[in-house]
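Let's sit down with a protein and look at its sequence and fold side by side. We need material for that, and I hope you will provide a protein of your own picking. Once you have written the record down, we can walk along the chain together.

***
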Amino acid sequence: MTSAEDIKAWLKRVGKNREWLAEKTLVSKGTVNGWLSTGKPIPSAKLALIEKLMSGEEEIEFELPPDFEKQLRAMADEMHKNLEDMVSHILQVTARAHQKRKAEAPSQQFTPVEPLPAASFLDQPVPVIGNIAAGALTPGDNIPYQIKTDYQLGKGEYVLQVEGKSMEPVIPDGSLVVMRKHTIPPIPKVGTIVEYNDERGVTLKKLGRKKNPETGKMEYVLHPLNPDFGDIEPMDGGKISAVFVNILTNYEKMTS
């Protein structure tokens, strides 16, 4: 296993400092100092990323919105995770999405990932009941399919497949998300990621509020996490039918 001394020697050899390593691993410089100077254990997801950097493998680059840290903290609260766990979760999901895109490129050679052991899955198949747009409001695709997963659905929960990139990097295109039916109160707290329906279709977005420049009143808006997409506003004439719970990471699609 790579040690702190190995990492320090590598940084010196490649002419990089701890601040650079902190930026690449999405942590503070103080956290890196803790890993390298005080013997604080390096989380497995972060150590795997450091080892990829040390081996010279391609780095994953993505643009972050200006208020990403605020969004990240809100997301961590919503998913009942601490900030470190949330960052590790995003790194793992983003890495999987990155590898999937590389595998789908016709010019790329890749080694297929070994299938997950069937023993890790629950016996009861879980239906993916349709798609949800992560972009503009579009009609949902109601063609279901079955998966095996280790996630036990709770009361009122169901699984949808995300179509679109407006919620990246937190929820990549193609992700399977667990949603929970929502009825009371009619509007969940600001910052919650929601499933919104109106006559135009259905979409997955973060619930926000901002002042209408014409009326001066605060109005609800649907906010993407990807800065390349704009808000959907005003949010009227529809309803919030579910709230985001989690992203499925351990599953296998069942063949008919």
